[in-house]
Design brief:
This protein has 333 residues and is mostly beta strands. It is 9% helix and 45% strand. The chain has a single domain (35-331), classed as Glycosyl hydrolase domain, family 43 (Tachylectin-2, Chain A), CATH 2.115.10. The protein binds beta-D-galactopyranose.
Amino acid sequence: MRKHTLCFLMMLGAMVTLTSAYAQQKMEKSFKPSELWHDTDGQLINAHGGGILYANKKYYWFGEKRGKQVSQGVTVYSSKDLYAWKYEGVALSPDKNSESEITEGCLIERPKVIYNKKTSKYVMWFHLELKGKGYAAAKVGVAVSDKVTGPYKFVDSFRPNGNMSRDMNLFVDDDGSAYHIYSSDENMNMRISKLTNDYLKATKEDKLLFRRQREAPAIFKYQKRYYLVSSGCTGWAPNEASVHMADNLFGPWKLMGDPMKGPNAKSTFGGQSTYVLPLVGKKDAFIFIADKWNPKDLMDSRYIWLPVQFIEGQVKIEWMDQWNLDWFKKTIL
Ligand code: GAL
C-alpha cells in the first residue's frame, strides 16, 4: 500500500474514533462528576463559577471563561436535557477600552443571570475586580441584554450599600423579588441585599446573614424554607462545605453542618459550591453544582454535579461516580 494511502487511512481511522467518542458522549445521558465534560462541538466546557437560568424552554449555563489563569469574560451554553450543552458564545466580553472597568485584565467571577419580567431584560451580576488591583476592589458588576445569550452590556459596578462584595449569588423568590447574597467584609461575613425592581441595583434592605468566614454561596428554596450552601475561604483549594437554613431570607439563619457524604466529603469532593439548580417540571428536585478548581490551568477546572437529598430535615449531598436524572424518579424525597 502506498505511504500516503496508509496515512489517509490512519487519519480516517482517528477521525472515526474521535467522532464516535463525541457521539457516544452525546448519547450518554449521565453526569460524571469531576470528569472531562465536552460541549456538543467536542470542546471542553469553559464556564466556571457558573449559574444556570431556564428561559425559552432551555437551560442556559453562564460561567467564567478562563484561559490558563486569565479571565476572558462570561460564556453561555444551552441545553434541553442538562447533559448535552451547545456553546452559544461569549455573553459578556472584557472591554478593549482601557478606561472601562471591565477592560481586558480585570477579573469577572461567579456570573449569575436572572430575567426581569417587568423590563423584559436579562440581568447579569458578577464579582468584579479591577485590572492590576488583585482582589482589592471587591465590587459587583451588572450587565444587561435583551437576548438571553447576549451580548450583555456592562452598565454599572458598585459595592452594595458600601459593603465589600466578592463571591456572590442571585436568588429570585416566588414573588419576583430578587436578592444578592455576598461574601463581605474581607469574606468575614455573609450578607444579603434586596435588588431594586429592575434588578439593576441594591436597595437599602441589606442585612448581615451570619458572621462566619464563608465564600461560594449557593442558595435554594425547598418547601418554603431557604438553604444556603457555602465553602470556607482557602482560595482555589477545597475545604469543608456547610449549609445554613432559614424560614426568612433575612434570617435568622441556622447552621446545619456539612451536607457532603462519601469519599473526600470533608473537602467537598475537591470542589467548591457555585449554584443549586432547581429542576424545571419536577417538584423538590435540585442539583448541587461545584467547581473543582485547577489553579495551574483554570480553564481545565472540572465540574461536580450531584443530586440534593433531604433526609429527616437534613440536607445530604452524596458522592456518585455517575448518575442521571432518573435518580429523581426512583428517589422519594
Ligand atoms: C476562591 C473564590 C473564587 C476565586 C478564588 C481566587 O475562594 O471562591 O471564586 O475568587 O478564591 O483565589
